[in-house]
Amino acid sequence: MSYRKVFKRSKGKSAAVEPTRHLFLANCGHSSGINDINDLQEALGHPHGLRECITENNFTFASFDSPEDAEACRRGLPDAGIRAEFVTKRGETHETSESWVSTTTDELPPGLTLIPDFITKEEEMKLMARVDEGDWNTSIRRRVQHFGHTFSYTSLRAEEADLTGDDIMPSYTRELVRRIATNSVEEAREFIPDQLTINEYMPGVGIAFHVDTHSAFEGPIVILSIGAGIVLEFRRPSDGKALPLWLPRRSLAIMGGESRFGWVHGIAGRKTDRVGKNSELVHRERRISLTFRQMKNSPCCCKWPVLCDTQNPSSLVLPSRVHSEERLV
Hints:
Layout: E1 7-8, E2 22-26, H1 37-44, E3 50-55, E4 59-64, H2 67-75, E5 83-89, H3 94-98, E6 112-115, H4 121-132, E7 144-148, E8 150-152, E9 157-159, H5 174-183, E10 195-201, E11 207-210, E12 221-226, E13 230-236, E14 241-247, E15 252-255, H6 257-261, E16 264-267, E17 272-275, E18 280-283, E19 287-293
Antiparallel strand pairs: 1-5, 2-4, 2-5, 3-4, 6-15, 7-10, 8-9, 10-19, 11-16, 12-15, 12-19, 13-14, 13-16, 17-18
């Protein structure tokens, strides 16, 4: 099929195109050895979410799972003369583009535990109020708060500090931390977090696929969702398997074992999600996540070397859309 019947480029130098899940890639076609999606994967550095492509002599149209995947690819293009711009797909509205990804699955990656209604509605309201009393950092696209030891993308390591009182964990999380250790799963029995990141996800905001640095933090990683639910997608680099999971409001997700060390996870930047067997369209609302971690800063000898920074240093790469001064997300 001709690309002209599928994709539409913006007209005029000043025409601005909002991020979509489709890219026009100039200087990237048959003449430069790009003949199929495998060639394109190699040329682009194996970007996340590349779904399909139409390749011509000097250019290629590429489609991704989400606008965030396309944007991450565009910002992380290798220095090979390739130029990228967002394009639209004929007949695809902004709404259908946002909700294009597959609906959620009930299958969990090995080692992940999801506990619904871990806190009550009343506890959620009180927790959100206390969070909003804190100082929000607005240096990145989403607002964040950090407590305890910090993690710098400059060194990709946690930075130790002498911390006391609310510098370690805010007082309003103490009962929550106690409950995690006593009422969740065996792997969290000895969990004593000393690092907390609070993220605010407004509709349309996401986070690039990543793995929490193996040598920087122990397992598990514990995430509480309040305010609204959201789709968190897991991907296994070893075979490309993807599991989009619905994290309900007030649920607790405990990433341990393979889900912690052998899969990457991320949130697509869109305003809707497809949820459940009937692919119900859910409009996103303001969501706040509290992510608890326990610092490690020692070599890792896990069973999943592909994403292990100790056993495979080349795996320790900064997501292309994140600047070096941004802290752990």
